[in-house]
Write a structure and sequence with these properties.
Blueprint: H1 7-62, H2 65-78, H3 82-109, H4 111-119, H5 125-150, H6 154-179, H7 184-206, H8 216-239, H9 241-245, H10 247-254, H11 257-272, H12 275-291, H13 296-332, H14 340-367, H15 370-395, H16 398-423, H17 429-447, H18 457-501
Helix pairs in contact: 1-3, 1-5, 1-6, 1-8, 1-11, 1-12, 1-13, 2-3, 2-5, 2-8, 2-12, 3-5, 3-8, 4-5, 5-7, 6-7, 8-15, 10-11, 10-15, 11-14, 12-13, 12-14, 13-14, 13-17, 13-18, 14-16, 14-17, 15-16, 17-18
């Protein structure tokens, strides 16, 4: 039987990935709670700064190889080109081995400078060096996960996410509870090792080793192709995602370490509550886009279907979170993290434009030139840096949330213009109305306190969330019902054909 197509197929993959993502969310909430209680805002901020160092270095050391592997290998894996995939996999490992070692050497040599730049103090150079261990394991783990993604093994990706979350959280919590601040670096390293072990196990079990040993010349040639893609991609990511990863560093230099803790608390919730969508976009949607990147009509249909699903799932969640933010911050962290509330509210509204823009940015990544993608990410990076700097100068910590919203409105506009020109893309009427309604509802909730209706803020938000949620459930149930009807019809047809043959 052929794989189901259209939004039902997207919904199926999203549901599978969501099952692990929801578990990951719960585990992440428990871990954040323990870290917040035992470390406090300052310790939590310090941990976030170290994580920023690791994320930025992994971004550079990974050199976009994993994304390039999915882009170049998705069609080969689909066509069962074992020789081609073996060559790409070997080339990817060759590239990350070289870049990973070089990144570690740089950290060791310039450890004191990195301590000053990242942690705002020169007194933690060996924390920087030890973070290099976590970087090496994270780069390897990411590549193993991308290999699984290239083969579009959705179930294996879900298992990887769930197992890494549970075991990583267990190790992290144990180290933080026992050693408090002194357990931060060991916890980060241990979490990276656990992720590497799990992704390695699943890669061997689900995919196995390459069935052929490609010639060295072919491997080097493929490595050069990956590097040619990865170089501009990494530069683009550094100017886009990289700037966002570096925001805690900007915060610590403009405000203080406690503010980093507040920012990290808000950002974690903003990312976590719709983590299943982030996972599905990267591990299901991107391979689909890559497979039809040269088919404009198929791309237009796929973008609209993905956008519809994003809005159906994200809007009720975003509105519900807006209603409950004043209660969730103390619950997930502690009362000491109260300053993160207003920051998070602005970020939640920005998520609406972030996820919507991603449905188009993945198309740019898969179809357009590296220069185009570099341009879009550069715009995002410059926007987040400038608006964050201005926001903190004018409004303090809440200005970071306002800058997040402003950045993704700018980014959404840019990627929409590019995709519209590239494939003559037009949003469906339903998507336009859902997007406009969601934005209007979110702004009404956010502006309630400024209109003398502060006491009505939560009831209004919950009402909006309930209306959006009921509409989404009806739409999703319609898709599921259609799937069942289609399956029943197929069985009837097959039965009739069988009788005809008899």
């Amino acid at each position: 039987m052929n794989e189901p197509t259209g939004i039902r197929s997207i919904l199926r993959a999203t549901a599978i990935l969501s099952s692990s993502s929801f578990l990951t969310i719960l585990v992440g909430v428990a871990t954040a709670k323990v870290n917040a209680v035992f470390l406090g805002p300052a310790g939590y901020g310090y941990m976030g700064l170290l994580q920023s160092l690791i994320n930025l270095t992994v971004l550079v050391a990974g050199l976009g190889v994993g994304v390039g592997l999915v882009k170049m290998g998705a069609s080969r894996a689909k066509e069962n080109d074992a020789a081609g995939m073996a060559c790409l996999r070997s080339a990817a490992w060759l590239v990350v081995a070289v870049t990973g070692v070089l990144a570690t050497i740089v950290l060791v040599v310039f450890r004191e400078k990195f301590s000053l730049w990242i942690l705002n103090t020169p007194s933690h150079p060996w924390a920087v060096v030890l973070a290099g261990i976590g970087i090496l394991f994270t780069v390897a783990s990411n590549l193993q996960t991308n290999i699984i993604n290239t083969y579009h093994r959705v179930e294996a990706l879900a298992k990887n996410s769930a197992m890494a979350a549970i075991l990583g959280a267990a190790v992290t919590i144990a180290l933080i509870v026992v050693w408090r601040d002194k357990g931060i670096v060991p916890a980060i390293i241990a979490g990276a090792i656990v992720s590497w072990l799990i992704s390695r196990y699943l890669l061997r079990k689900e995919i196995g080793a390459p069935s052929a040993r490609p010639p060295l010349g072919e491997v080097i040639k493929a490595a050069k192709s990956l590097a040619r893609f990865g170089g501009p991609y990494t530069a683009s990511m550094l100017l886009g995602t990289g700037v966002q990863m570096a925001l805690p560093i900007l915060v610590v230099h403009m405000l203080d370490t406690q503010s980093v803790g507040y920012y990290r608390a808000a950002a974690n919730i903003s990312v976590t509550y719709l983590g299943f969508l982030i996972t599905a976009m990267g591990q299901d949607y991107y391979p689909r886009v890559s497979a039809v990147s040269r088919q404009p009509e198929a791309l237009r249909e796929l973008i609209n279907k993905q956008q519809r699903l994003v809005l159906l799932l994200a809007v009720p969640g975003m509105l519900g979170m807006l209603a409950l933010v004043p209660y969730l911050i103390p619950l997930f962290y502690s009362a000491k993290f109260h300053p993160a509330i207003e920051l998070l509210e602005w970020q939640l509204i920005g998520d609406l434009f972030k996820f919507s823009s991603w449905t188009m940015s993945f198309v740019i990544l898969a179809r357009c030139s590296s220069v185009t993608y570099f341009f879009t990410e550069s715009v995002a990076g410059v926007a987040i840096f400038v608006t964050s700097w201005l926001g903190m100068r004018w409004f303090g910590l809440p200005g970071l949330g306002m800058s997040f919203l402003a950045t993704y409105i700018i980014y959404y506009t840019i990627v929409w213009l590019i995709v519209r020109k590239e494939i003559n893309f037009v949003w469906s009427s339903a998507n336009k109305w859902m997007m406009a309604g969601a934005a209007a509802a979110a702004l009404v909730v956010r502006l309630c306190p400024y209109t003398g209706m502060a006491l009505w803020r939560t009831p209004v938000a919950l009402t909006f969330a309930a209306v959006a949620g009921s509409g989404s459930l009806r739409a999703i149930w319609g898709e599921v019902k259609d799937t069942k009807t289609a399956a029943q019809a197929q069985r009837v047809v097959l039965g009739l054909l069988g009788r005809a043959q008899i």
